[in-house]
Amino acid sequence: VSTQSTGSSGINAEYGKQWYQRRVRAPVARGKKSKRVVTKYTLDCTHPAEDSILDPADFVTFLSGRVKVAGKTGNLGDNIIITKEKNTVALSADIPLSKRYLKYLTKKYLKKNNLRDWLRVVSNSKNSFELRYFQVDNDDEAEE
Predict the structure, then answer these.
(1) DSSP β-ladder status, 39-44 and 128-133
(2) Cα–Cα distance list, 43 to 28, 66, 110 (Å)
(3) CB of 62 within 8 A of CB of 109?
(4) In angstroms, how far is CA 115 from the centroid of its own chain?
(5) Taking the complete model, does pTM exceed 0.85, yes or no?
(6) pLDDT at 71 over 90
(7) What are the start-end ranges of the H helices in 24-86?
(8) Helix (H) or strand (E) holding 105
(9) Are strands 88-93 and 119-125 parallel, antiparallel or unpaired?
(10) How far is CA 85 from the centre of its chain?
(11) pLDDT tens digits, one per residue of 87-96
(12) Does the pLDDT value for residue 113 go beyond 90?
């Protein structure tokens, strides 16, 4: 009768080999950097700017002072670029910046200048907003 002794060291060695194989990851390609995704947003201020209710240049200074980057305001650097083109404000960001945050800041600007009662922020497309007047129906007042 032959007895083979596997011994405890053989079992542990096999278990260690399986454990190592499960945790080995595929090699990561070094040296290649991922492309920076640039998100561009536009805010169309045409209607209020034509009526001289809102100044787009003042809005640009408000945004550049209030946008937070890494938890700090006024820390735009090269990551976020805010420009004014006629009556539109363009914002391009290399870092993740949500459209919802931009809408929040726009509403905050309108509230600060007491324009929130007359203007609203409406999305035109995936990457743009527009400032519109509230629609006031005067039909009820005309009939009385």
Answers:
(1) parallel
(2) 40, 16, 13
(3) yes
(4) 24
(5) no
(6) no
(7) 46-50, 56-66
(8) helix 99-112
(9) unpaired
(10) 21
(11) 999 999 998 8
(12) yes
